[in-house]
């Protein structure tokens, strides 16, 4: 098993909170928290029962919430889910004392009280079962923890595994929050090149094999961050063979792999091959077979820290996700939670628990994920069809994404008439402004580069998402972007009227 | 206005997230997010309307929650609030699209989408109005931010205002989480002595005036952490005059004051003077006059960072609180949120917003707080009555608390028969173990000392809480604790049977 570095590590005198220490004592057999356990009770204390004046938690009597009801999507009517409330919904309910009255294992009194740094045992159990079914991690002592969202989890992981001036290995272009989170912690970024299958194993190996502490000003990295499925911003999904190669390099150089995988269940069909209606899955196992296996599923060493999120598959406002890793890593994350977020919101936990455990179940959850896959596949197709119609082929290239939320359009900036006088960044900026003037918002590729990578930028990209806009808006946005590109590059303008007509519906 | 130190400060290149940057563009007049604003629109764009393929947020269509209903305490029936659901409750409701249908300013589609680092504008507005009514901060540019709980807020504040090896000034005994959170950040602790009115201004002044960098190994502190009301663990509440003295010392030595005030609304009547029934307040203003003014309310300089929490007054599981400080400090906290928790859970935000804004209003909220004050006053009285009955006066001293959750019992350890052979810590441990053997859980005072303060511990204390145990359990716990003390100190055992009888009801 890998060893953990620093900040929250045992070198620092970790102090137990009163809650923790009290919980330890109260959880002993014979205490009121465990009324049915008769074993191991010290003799003579049978009829005593511990009276606690210890942890300063308020009385649950004084939580002014008595019941919560949620109207949620029904498993038999996912297809009708849309902007309006569908005809068929399911009501789920949580009372304050459902647990003591035997109605449920989880209730408002538990959810709204102080909790454990792992998140509630009930939801951790459900997510652990889910992880077992979907990823089946090939080593024994893995564990799950509920995070307060992946940004929070990532920050705690960085504090745990990276010291100031340490390098984090990242895809050449990556999610901007990685930089924003790393910079205040003093983390630097080492870019790994990518091809159509994502991270390039040879480049990763070269970087690590030839790492020069003197040149880089810091020791050889021990931490790789990757978004393996529907990468942000490139949309690329690493095939299994690529993941296996990268994993072998990680073994060779003893890397931790932070697998940030919010789009794992947004694995879409191949572009233009999905017109056939997909039936909802009838078993979790069968559905899992349709997905590219995760790094976690090939992690024999416990070197993967897998971050899952509810943001793209349930709702971002839940501010909740889950992390799966070795029990040693999870134990440190629990310590990290205790001195920051403590645990995700109890409102979020009980809402998601009631939805997944009480209403949908594991199969229903996967049917929901399959429904989302179908929906985002349609949106993806609309965007790339519009690209084919409206973008000038002379200067634009793209590969239709097979997962996630993003299209990544390459623009040949060297075809700009001022190529000798303008940098790639300047051309990118001109296009971005022209697109805004034309009424389309897209994201410049340079935003996804670390500061140290911007000066040498040799390509111009734009990221576009099909996640939220209507199909009409997607088409219109791409039409405008194409027109803006033609203006900037002095290309003949498209007869947009006829083109628009040809795609109506 | 005070200047902010380091980690999240402008020295670090702060990168804007895609969300932030996009929000800036979308919030410009004439964009779809602002359909009614006709002013300032660039000419020629009137009929265009921006199409956004920018931020990678999922479509709200795919949030599987359509409505939330909560059964909450009714303002006219707080007195019946108890373990069971009271006869009269109020139903509050949030739909997915209440905002676009004009039913509310806040709905599930907003709450469950990605949000802003401040927390939602709707709830920030309500809490800001509350702060204005209760504390009326005496300078212009103060602001509120919703925290993901006070532990999270405190960690972000430490990262913002303390560098490794910096000292934090704290009450001699203080909340253990302060140490747990500070230690991994490399923070050290300088203890300030306290008397019956809390922090001693002379001691604070002495420490700062005579600060010796060479001896202490670090520069003079710039950060004071205090729990001014119902201090944890001592239960002490600083009177206004004491707060004013401390504030003047803070001005003299240019300190930030972190005012951690979760028990502000648990200001109890004086012990044994509250048998008269208190009528619910009829105005916020009148109720506020019954409370000791906060540091925020005397903060002319913007040097106070006030941390409020819903944990003790609504529910800890909401994992939400609010921080009030200068706009410069809040702006930095927003940046801190963006790279960690982002914002509190949308489920928590909408539940609390619907409760406070839609159902209770400002007056109803204060009536609830007055109800809690009455309830905790009764519990406090039960505990100290039991102390009078059961604790051996020969070795125990206490001052009944006038706020918060805690009693702080001093035990004269020098009366132990092995006083020459045992340290204060050893006597404390013997008492703690004897109490557990007798079936009572209390918290040893040494747990509330920083590591550097334990060796010189000259007093033995125990912290007890009346917050959660039933009145019968409180009495029984104190009776057992008294018996344990008598055993440890070889005192004559009390005729406990007659004593118990004398307090039965």
UniProtKB/TrEMBL annotation, chains A, B:
Assigned protein family:
Belongs to the class-I pyridoxal-phosphate-dependent aminotransferase family.
Q: From which source organism is this entry? A: Aspergillus ruber (strain CBS 135680)
Entry keywords, A to Z: Aminotransferase, Pyridoxal phosphate, Transferase
Give the protein's recorded name.
Answer: Putative aromatic aminotransferase Aro8
Gene Ontology molecular function terms on file: 2-aminoadipate transaminase activity; aromatic-amino-acid transaminase activity; pyridoxal phosphate binding
**Its GO biological process terms?**
aromatic amino acid family catabolic process; lysine biosynthetic process via aminoadipic acid; tyrosine biosynthetic process
- Give the cofactors, semicolon-separated: pyridoxal 5'-phosphate
Q: Name one Pfam family in it.
A: Aminotran_1_2
> Where are the stretches annotated Disordered?
26-55
